[in-house]
Amino acid sequence: MIYYLLIAFQAFCIFHIYKSRNDYYWYFIVFFVPVIGALVYFFLEIVSSRNISNANDKIRNSLNPGKKIKDLKEKLKFADSFQNKSNLADAYRENKNYPEAILFYEKALESNVHQDKHTLNKLAKCYFELKNYKKVVECADQIDLDKFFKGTICIYAISLEKCGFNDKAEIEFKKTNIRYSNYPERLEFARFLVRQENKDDAKNTLDVIISEIDNMIETNKKKYKYIYKESVKLLEQV
Q1: Separation in Å, CA 208 to CA 48, 135, 202
Q2: How confident is the model at residue 179 (pLDDT cuts 50, 70, 90)?
Q3: How far apart are alpha carbons 226 and 235 in whole angstroms?
Q4: Which regions form coiled coils (predicted)?
Q5: 86 inside domain
Q6: Most confident range, picked from 12-26, 62-76, 92-106
Q7: Is residue 107 part of a domain?
Q8: Rounded to the nearest 5 degrees, what angle is found at the Cα of 202, between the Cα atoms of 197 and 208?
Q9: Burial class of residue 203, CB neighbours in 10 A (0-12, 13-18, 19+)
Q10: How many structural domains is the chain composed of?
Q11: Distance, CA of 201 to chain centre
Q12: How far apart are CA 50 and CA 66, in angstroms?
């Protein structure tokens, strides 16, 4: 079985040399130095070239962020598809232009019969940045956050509270209250409990957060330094 996989891998590399029109000497290396030659080609010509290409794209986009949006607009003019609208919305979101991102996410959803859950999730996050909490709730209610987007549960809970649904907000916040994880979300939960005048549960949540961070290795302590300081400060105020 392994023998056939190695032959297939070697054939793939040879095909890539032909397709990419790489230097002719690679044929000899891959063919006459089995396995090692193919591995060398794979890492030098396939993996490295992709990484360099991605790095170059990131550099170009950081130096000229408008170029990516301009290019995506041209693609959208050429093909008015769901994917092109979504890609343009993503680019606006990367540039923190949330109103334009929302516009194209909504246009994308208009052309998508099944109301794509990933687009709805990104749309909810954009609305949250603009403090349009009612819209966050509307978007989040259409997707299964527990199954697909646990990272959005906290902003959903905050939005529910802002809209006056405190009981439902507490249910959602509790889903994030998991030991040894979700520290920013658990801090938000503690703040919520303080606002709800549930001081005992707030103190307990903060005590656990502080205790867990106290027992971390130094690297993780530095990582959660802000959470630790804010938790101690809030505990002193409760």
Answers
A1: 45, 33, 10
A2: very high
A3: 14
A4: none
A5: no
A6: 92-106
A7: no
A8: 175
A9: middle
A10: 1
A11: 31
A12: 23
> What would the two tokens of residue 94 be?
């990367």
Name residues whose C-beta falls within 8 Å of residue 90's C-beta, 6 or more positions apart in sequence: 101, 122
CB 115, CB 142: distance < 8 Å: yes
For the chain, what is the radius of gyration of the CA atoms?
Answer: 25
Domain that holds residue 33: 1-60
Domain presence at residue 67? no
Structure tokens at 136: 């966050």
Q: What are the tokens at 1?
A: 């079985």
Tell me, yes or no, whether 4 lies in a domain. yes
Cα-Cα-Cα-Cα dihedral sign, residues 98, 103, 108, 114: positive
Burial status of residue 85 (CB atoms within 10 A of its CB: 0-12, 13-18, 19 or more): buried
Q: Compute the distance between CA of residue 91 and CA of residue 210 in angstroms, rounded to an integer.
A: 38
pTM over 0.85: no
